[in-house]
Amino acid sequence: MPIVVQKFGGSSVANAERIKRVARRVVETKEAGNQVIVVVSAMGDSTDDLIELANQINEKQKPQAREMDMLLATGEQVSIALLAMAIAQLGHEAVSLTGPQAGVMTESVHCKARIVDIRTERLQKELEAGRIVIVAGFQGLTANGDIATLGRGGSDTSAVALAVAIGAQVCEIFTDVDGVYTTDPRVVPRAQKLSRITYDEMLELASLGAQVLHPRSVELGKAYKMPIHVRSSFNHNDGTMVQEAEGDMEKELMVSGVTYDMNVVKVGLFDVPDRPGIARILFTALAKAHVNVDMIIQSAMHNERNDISFTVGQSDQEVAVAVVQQVKEEIGAGGVIYDDKVAKVSIVGAGMISRPGVAALMFEAISEEGINIEMISTSEIKVSCVIVAEDAKRAVQAIHRKFELDGLDAVNCEGFATA
Amino acid sequence: MPIVVQKFGGSSVANAERIKRVARRVVETKEAGNQVIVVVSAMGDSTDDLIELANQINEKQKPQAREMDMLLATGEQVSIALLAMAIAQLGHEAVSLTGPQAGVMTESVHCKARIVDIRTERLQKELEAGRIVIVAGFQGLTANGDIATLGRGGSDTSAVALAVAIGAQVCEIFTDVDGVYTTDPRVVPRAQKLSRITYDEMLELASLGAQVLHPRSVELGKAYKMPIHVRSSFNHNDGTMVQEAEGDMEKELMVSGVTYDMNVVKVGLFDVPDRPGIARILFTALAKAHVNVDMIIQSAMHNERNDISFTVGQSDQEVAVAVVQQVKEEIGAGGVIYDDKVAKVSIVGAGMISRPGVAALMFEAISEEGINIEMISTSEIKVSCVIVAEDAKRAVQAIHRKFELDGLDAVNCEGFATA
């Protein structure tokens, strides 16, 4: 009997009514002839409530990571017990398992542990007994016997890891949206839902802001070739299948998606002395300050001094600028500029690898709108441009049109999640 | 270094401020030169909140006991993590352990499991590392690897069991009251706090209504001779030490306590044919209906018919009366009466074993008040009388005086817990 892993996030189990709806969905899958493992997150805002409690206790110093994990793991444990009860109400046998009980073994690190192994004995036993197995996402057990949580994207990662370990046919990730779109339907009403997308494309899209699926889980899916079906918890439509590139897949679309990210600050250090090691000094200093740097552009000028610019998220702006000011003094650069009125617009597509001119087509779309490009960064399957923030949506619309991604029907964009 | 186990109930950890107060108390004990294991219950009403959630899900049928345990166990897990954080804020190393992590092994029964073993490896390791160990009360692990809760009195029982397993010097149970009193200070302002009491006396007092300590934990303490110190979480006074009878202990007090219980219904079946097996038929029928019968009196009359009467708690009244009505028809008894305007007044004391006339002294105290005794039941260290409810407090006062238990000072009865 095929095994299906289904993952439901916190908003899908936010209250008793929603838990009952998830239970019906799970039972349908079981009655369709599958063995089912369900991974759930903590109910709605319950994790925030637990964090608030911890904040009331920890006035002087940060709480110990181990104890935060002990605390936060209760959130998913509540969800799994309630979902198991709701399934039993529908006349099916269900059993809930904490991450540790489900055999999810992690590194001995807290709050951001990685899964190192899944011991499937208990899962196998429960499936063989005909039960629907409900597993607490986001958590596992360290070699010391402690509870560890997986950090951001943890529940998606739990689901894909369980699917891989148990040999599931597919891992279904239920979200508020119908799947992965060619772009944000709120900006381009004729954005199209992609029926298929490669892991690499999804990785680029995920880190660019289409927050339907966390990159960690996509990486895991890619490593073990586990098909991930991103679909809506509100309807039964097919969503987007994230999977290996197939023979004909590349041909379909040169560009799979157009994304934009408004959470960008451009920081520039100009008139930098042109000698080896400058970039190392700058980016080591930023890394030490825990600044997450995204795009980096170094442009060699005709004279002996040049400019280095990079982008960071808005929350890192203050620290990044302070670090760059200090580096400026140290190395004797000309000055520092920063600008938070910018946005990043990107195209992603495995199809562009074998097709020259894709980037040029994007630049053409932008320039036709009279928009100036401030920074450009490219990877094998992605091209990103930093432009003035207020032009971002117009640029996305132009690019979407230029690559002939506009569908015939306008998309209902209610609930569409973006960066 | 001596090991002390300290147990704090749900009201002691009901919010962040109270958790911090418990943390200070624990740290004091550690700094006084002890190794400390702390057992805590779920915060305040959090268990009720979880039950309410489960009720919203389980409309058609009762939830599975296993899943209720999965759900309810989160309550204590939240408390232990927060208390460990609060202790760390005070500069001490603490580690929280769930019941399963602490090695508390239970029967494979849910919602009312009994502890079968405690595997102390992890506890030992953490204590040797100099840490204060915080354990979730009320929960353990079955041989199947499932979480089981211990049912009523579970946290007290966890604490005493851990104290026994680890070889603690004493198990301290912190409550809202100063200790165990000779009677309810709200009825007799000159009630005295008992400095010592035997396990047997405490067992009789506990089941009679002095709800400071659950009988299960007292039984466990008695079996392994673990001293249990019942004391206030609001001050540092010595409370009541529950321990083995010592040589001079018996001599101290003929009667240790006077209790009363208003939650009593008297049910009588009269004109019962005097033939063997009638009592068996009646009490088997009551047991099948899950009626918890307390006192049983059968009085043989001069003729060939007699009366059987018994007491039950008020919640069992309806079922009990219905059962007795049916038995009446079956065996051809004369009639059924019941009365819920009664109360049970009792004296408890290991000292009465070797002293004849203790029961008579109690009857004398009651009759001097002009109060009629409706039923009498005695055990080795207890005498109980059923009387009219409105006379109960006057009877308690008279008995307390008769046995010379009145102290010199009136007790501050605020927060005193009674049945």
UniProtKB/TrEMBL annotation, chains A, B:
Q: Summarize where substrate binds, as residue positions.
A: 47, 76
- Decide whether keyword Secreted is in the record: no
Q: Does the keyword Amino-acid biosynthesis apply?
A: yes
> Where ATP is bound, by residue?
7-10, 175-176, 181, 186
Per the record, the domain of life is Bacteria
What pathway annotation does it carry? Amino-acid biosynthesis; L-methionine biosynthesis via de novo pathway; L-homoserine from L-aspartate: step 1/3; Amino-acid biosynthesis; L-lysine biosynthesis via DAP pathway; (S)-tetrahydrodipicolinate from L-aspartate: step 1/4; Amino-acid biosynthesis; L-threonine biosynthesis; L-threonine from L-aspartate: step 1/5
GO cellular component terms listed in the entry, alphabetical order: cytosol
Q: Which reaction does it catalyse?
A: L-aspartate + ATP = 4-phospho-L-aspartate + ADP
Question: Locate the ACT domain: which residues?
Answer: 267-350
| GO molecular-function terms, A-Z | aspartate kinase activity; ATP binding
Pfam families hit by this protein? AA_kinase, ACT_9
The alphabetical list of record keywords is: Amino-acid biosynthesis, ATP-binding, Diaminopimelate biosynthesis, Kinase, Lysine biosynthesis, Nucleotide-binding, Transferase
Gene3D superfamilies membership: Acetylglutamate kinase-like, VC0802-like
Identify the EC number(s). 2.7.2.4
Q: What PROSITE patterns does this protein map onto?
A: ACT, ASPARTOKINASE
Q: Which InterPro entries match?
A: AceGlu_kinase-like_sf, ACT-like_dom_sf, ACT_Aspartokinase, ACT_dom, AKii-LysC-BS, Asp/Glu/Uridylate_kinase, Asp_kin_monofn, Asp_kinase
**Gene Ontology BP annotations:** diaminopimelate biosynthetic process; homoserine biosynthetic process; lysine biosynthetic process via diaminopimelate; threonine biosynthetic process
Chain's role: Catalyzes the phosphorylation of the beta-carboxyl group of aspartic acid with ATP to yield 4-phospho-L-aspartate, which is involved in the branched biosynthetic pathway leading to the biosynthesis of amino acids threonine, isoleucine and methionine.
> What family does the entry list?
Belongs to the aspartokinase family.
The family database entries (PANTHER family) matched by this protein are listed as: ASPARTATE KINASE, ASPARTOKINASE
Listed name of the protein: Aspartokinase
